[in-house]
Design a protein that fits this description.
This protein is an alpha+beta fold and 343 residues long. It folds into three domains: 156 residues, 3-Layer(bba) Sandwich (FAD/NAD(P)-binding domain); 79 residues, no CATH class; 81 residues, D-Amino Acid Oxidase, Chain A, domain 2. It contains seven helices and 19 strands. α1 packs parallel to α7 and α3 crosses α7. The two termini are 37 Å apart. This is FAD dependent oxidoreductase domain-containing protein. InterPro entries: FAD-dep_OxRdtase, FAD/NAD-bd_sf. One of its GO terms (cellular component) is cytoplasm. Pfam families: DAO (PF01266).
Length: 343
């Protein structure tokens, strides 16, 4: 069967790339087995406009955030299912240094920061105080699940891993079993196909716990060392760890113990851990996405390296990539163009 594009991976990157191509009338086939420890399924879905200990504005955030809001609104109308919500993040300062950094950014006019007087949550340890960050939350599980069902109904999903021995790319045509396309897009994150591995992409493992906190009625994302994210029905996501070196991609007891100790220092209420989740995400050395046409092959593209900001970067990266693939723009933004790792 003939397609316009074959997409490898149906995490945030693959979902948004497929969505943009479908909106342009392209015939797409997505290959994704649904790995249990895929990064997107373990992520919290937080969109945070600031980064690091200095609360510096994230890369191109104004443009990235507006794109994300527009794209998620379009997807919600089409699917239809609510997946995106703007929400303030209650930022608890863990040190004097971070308190001073927050206040410095606030006084410098950062539009995404707001002051807070007093104490909002009596059960949260916040001796140095807290402030507000204007952010958002994406229900990633709902988004990927609903979109996956849409692909299944359209007979546009192969629920399997990509066998490289069965894949033939000759610069003009892509052949995978009985399926052929003019091009292939790798949105496979840290689980890259060996033949098409990108330089500059570094796998990093993250783990989180799902907890129940009886008596806690926090409706905001609370961020201190890690983030506490309400999931509904009395459950919360808390995490995540960051491991550059790891033996496997499964949850570990060590990470569970570490996160539980951190959560005990954040909230005074008793809680129960009901699940431990893990995922390996694709990060980059310069913390920019890796997007564009692979110079080693004539019709191979990538949308990868979204790191911890996939919820906000995926709509932006996918939209720019699809415009480039469809000839609407002459090039990819050089800061995220994958060719920076080949020059």
């Amino acid at each position: 069967m003939q397609y316009d594009y074959i997409i490898v991976g149906q995490g945030l990157s693959g979902t948004h790339t497929a969505w943009q191509l479908i909106q342009k009338g392209c015939h797409v086939l997505v290959i994704d087995k649904g790995l249990p420890y895929a990064a997107s399924m373990a992520a919290a879905g937080i969109i945070n406009p600031v980064s690091g200990r200095r609360f510096a504005l994230a890369w191109k955030f104004d443009e990235v955030f507006q794109t994300a809001k527009d794209v998620y609104a379009q997807m919600e109308e089409f699917l239809p299912h609510p997946v995106f919500k703007e929400t303030d993040i209650y930022s608890v300062w863990p040190s004097e240094q971070m308190k001073e950094a927050f206040l410095s950014q606030l006084n410098s006019g950062n539009p995404y920061l707001k002051p807070h007087e007093g104490t909002l949550y009596q059960d949260i340890g916040q001796p140095l105080g807290a402030g507000w960050i204007k952010g958002a939350h994406v229900n990633i599980f709902a988004l990927l699940s609903v979109f996956r069902n849409l692909l299944i109904k359209k007979k546009a999903l192969v629920q399997d891993t990509l066998g490289e021995a069965d894949l033939k790319v000759d610069g003009k045509n892509v052949q995978f079993g009985d399926f052929s396309a003019k091009a292939i897009v790798f949105c496979d994150g840290a689980h890259q196909c060996e033949k098409f591995v990108l330089p500059g992409v570094v796998p990093a493992k993250g783990e989180a716990i799902i907890v129940e906190i009886p008596g806690w009625e926090g409706n905001n994302i609370v961020k201190k060392t890690n983030s506490l994210v309400p999931l509904g029905k009395g459950r919360y996501w808390y995490g995540a760890t960051l491991q550059r070196e790891f033996e496997h991609d499964k949850p570990t007891t060590a990470a569970k113990d570490e996160l539980e100790d951190q959560l005990k220092s954040l909230i005074s209420l008793p809680f129960k851990t009901v699940d431990v989740i893990a995922g390996v995400r694709a990060t980059t050395v310069d913390r920019r996405p890796v997007v564009g046409k692979d110079p080693r092959f004539g019709n191979v593209y990538h949308c990868n390296g979204l790191g911890t900001k996939g919820s906000s970067l995926a709509p932006f990266a996918a939209l720019n990539l699809v415009k480039f693939m469809e000839g609407e723009v002459p090039s990819i933004d050089p800061e995220m163009d994958l060719n920076r790792y080949f020059n």
